[in-house]
Amino acid sequence: MRLIEGMEKMRVIYRTISQADKNPLHTHQDYRQFQDIMPSSQEEVQVKQNLLLAKALGLIIQHENKVTGFDEIRFSYQDKQTGIDKVQVLGETWQKAEENLLNDQNRKVRDILADSLKKIGENATTKPQKQQLYQKLIGCLKEIENTFIGGKDNPDYYKGEVALEEYIKQYNLMIISPSLNSSVVTETNTISAIPQNNEKLEKFRKLVITCYKSGTPSSTELQIVEKFRQKYDISQTISEQIIAEYTPKKDIENAIQEYSLMYQAFLENDHQIDLEEQAHLLDLQEELGLSNEQIAKIEAGIKAESNVLNNRQN
Questions:
Q1: Who's near 271: CB < 8 A, 6+ residues apart?
Q2: Structure pTM?
Q3: b/e string for 226-246 if b means 16 or more Cβ within 10 A?
Q4: Domain limits, the chain
Q5: Beta strands 71-78 and 85-91, pairing class
Q6: Which is nearest to 156 in space by CA: 170, 172, 167, 140?
């Protein structure tokens, strides 16, 4: 028991030496193939998830060093005290970047990364901002599926899915459109309450067209739109409907992936789709522009996969 209790401290020392000492501790060409005998702590799991999230959101990228000509993994952030944009090199590869972040000597960098991810999630307050952030995460999940051998069957895919799913839930990034009937009633009541707003609506519409004509707008552009929405006293419902008219149609693969995740989440909850969940799925189908045939194919595939897993477990 005493040996087991001391293994955690030994691992910390080992990591520090292996990353700092120029003389290698191993003679094997690929020592990373040997799995860690100690289970990852909750903090270590969170660090790995944060690295994946930062990669998905563009905080950490692979970039060529103009001096050396070699690629390196860079973390870009803004210093709180000076406001200066800084770059922290985490390693030559993504594997090395993960190892360096897990090192206790880089705890400050870990904390800065966690704060940066938190700030991005909290700043996504409007529906377009949440949708933009959500699409980035879904795109990253699709990239993970295409990168790893076996796709969704690869254990690393599941780890990535868990990380993105928790972030989406934490900041409520999955937007469900209100039902069609409630939208119509709300819009009618709003317009009748402020009939003089017609001219302002047209001005707001022109602003939205300009904002979305080049594709997905930046966070600054979205803030401008929100500013004029409040200035013109336009309701959130009407604003969302106008924005929806000029928002570029989502890529079909991303749309299918988004619907699949939602349907699978509902199905895994209690192995059935209740009335409220079905209503949400219908709203999502309409928002994504998926046909009934596509929906039927998606749901049939997920049900078949679920049945196979259940049979294996039994």
A1: 306
A2: 0.49
A3: bebbeebebbebbbbebbeee
A4: 37-47+58-112, 180-246
A5: antiparallel
A6: 140
